[in-house]
Amino acid sequence: MSAMHSGKTSPPRASNKTGHWQAADARHHIHPFTDQHALKEKGVRVITHGEGIYVWDSEGNRLLDAMAGLWCCQLGYGNEELVQAGAEALRQLPYYNTFFQTTHPQVVELGEKLAEITPEGLDTFFFANSGSEANDSAVKLIRYYWNLQGRKNKKIILSRNLSYHGTTMAAASLSGLPYMHPQFDLPLPGFEHVGPAPYWYDEGGDLSPDDFGLVVARAVENAIVKLGPDNVAAFIGEPVMGAGGLIIPPDTYWQEVEKICRKYDVLLWADEVICGFGRTGAWFGCQTYGFQPDLITMAKGLSSGYQPISALALGPRMGEAINNAHEELEHGFTYSGHPVACAVALRNIEIMQRLDLVGETGRAVAAYFQQKLGTLADHPLVGEVRGVGFLAAIEIVADKATRRRFQDPGKAGSLCRDFCFQNGLIMRAVRDTMILSPPLILSKLEVDELVDAARRCLDLTAAELSKD
Fold first, then answer.
1. How far is Cα 298 from Cα 444, in angstroms, rounded to an integer?
2. Looking at the domain covering 82-354, what would its CATH class be?
3. DSSP assignment string, 184-247
């Protein structure tokens, strides 16, 4: 499937500008989630080119990108149809806003297309530019919805330990990763976190996954009762938790959470920024896990990362209330529904449909991907391999039988990640969990290449750890 790209065959050569780029970057660029001083000492990696499932750095090294950028390049790199869609939109209407009772064809047609693939009823959309902005917007619209209902005490939004929902003040407050909070005096009031996460491998103990799923779901119920149902506005969850460690919920979890939210009249919010657009095998993760949210936030795979765009989809309950409020909605962004971003997103979905990436074709490759990755479970370092669709995690442990971790948390994962970069593979390390989220276009031969490289890097990691 990777052949559906530009057709270029000559690999990029090493550039003589690497040193200049590194020095200029060190002078002028603040990197996200990075120790700036340490990066300046080390020297930044410069990525110059991408094609299919591969990227090249400025030294001419080819890397198989098993993270699809940041979970987002569903169609891989160099897709000429997406380039053309953007170019055509730039020529026709490079920019116009959606304020002042105005629209344009690109945003209208994207809304129509999204309504075809979102779960039934979730067909009213607000557009933004990133997952963080979509989630920030959702917080505001949830508050607004309950104000319209005259229930102004329902303001608390409940999320989970180890969750990730973005980096704006509100989105970071939603996130349940404690390291994100102290530098900025977060979380803000009105945000609460519940644990444990539905992370059976680390938290399940002697419980079966199904029993553990019910226990963790009932922790959500206990939190709602403790805070008071009249105070809790919404519960947010990623169908599969991404940046917290690729945490796949037990089969019992989401249906129980949905029942609890309905019981206490709490809005159920699916953060699909990572899981949306085929990543779990369906268009959206809530479809994979069989629950019906009241609202969905999406980004990343919406445009395969080719343009910054995100969206908030509202179900009938919220959508009808806001559409019939008979007052001006005091919210929006300069680039909400940007015509170029919308045109690229629309073409992206059309290509995914034509290639059947969220159908039998995509499911066959995803099944092969999961089966081949499963062969790594025999490795001495691997405690568990888990996955769904085009998402997977490899747990690195000191003792497979007891799930015991290494004494220095994160060391093994960082070693493996670095060996991956040195051996032409990009995997992400979260603590000592290796994360994979490859482009949906990868072929079975490319799956073989990916898994062979992953085993080689695990071998190198084991050899290095044995020196301690």
1. 28
2. alpha beta
3. GT-SPTTEEEE---S-HHHH-TTS-HHHHHHHHHHHHHHHHHHH-TTTEEEEEE-SSB-TTT-B
Rg from Cα positions in the chain:
22
Whole-model pTM over 0.85: yes
Pairing of strands 310-314, 382-388: unpaired
Q: For the stretch 373-394, what's the b/e string if a residue is b when 16 or more beta carbons lie within 10 angstroms of its beta carbon?
A: beebeebebbbbbbbbbbbbbb
What's the CA gap between 57 and 191, in Å, rounded?
Answer: 41
- Report CA 60 to chain centroid distance, whole Å: 29
Q: Are 18-78+357-465 and 82-354 the same fold in CATH? A: no
Q: Phi and psi of 158, rounded to 5°? A: -100, 130
The CA distance from 14 to 79, in Å, is 23
Sequential pLDDT tens for the chain (468 residues): 454 555 555 677 788 899 999 999 999 999 999 999 999 999 999 999 999 999 999 999 999 999 999 999 999 999 999 999 999 999 999 999 999 999 999 999 999 999 999 999 999 999 999 999 999 999 999 999 999 999 999 999 999 999 999 999 999 999 999 999 999 999 999 999 999 999 999 999 999 999 999 999 999 999 999 999 999 999 999 999 999 999 999 999 999 999 999 999 999 999 999 999 999 999 999 999 999 999 999 999 999 999 999 999 999 999 999 999 999 999 999 999 999 999 999 999 999 999 999 999 999 999 999 999 999 999 999 999 999 999 999 999 999 999 999 999 999 999 999 999 999 999 999 999 999 999 999 999 999 999 999 999 999 999 999 987
With beta carbons less than 8 A apart as the criterion, state whether 6 and 49 touch: no
Residue 410, sorted as left (phi over 0), alpha (psi -120 to 50) or beta, turns out to be left
Nearest to 77 by CA among 65, 88, 59: 65
- Cα 461 to its chain centre, rounded Å, is 27
The CATH class of 18-78+357-465 is alpha beta
What is the Cα–Cα distance from 130 to 221, expressed in whole angstroms? 30
Q: Where are the domains of the chain?
A: 18-78+357-465, 82-354
> Are the C-beta atoms of 392 and 246 separated by less than 8 Å?
yes
- Residue reference for tokens 């939603």: 174
Strands (E), 18-76: 47-51, 54-57, 62-65
Q: Which two tokens stand for residue 164?
A: 């990730």
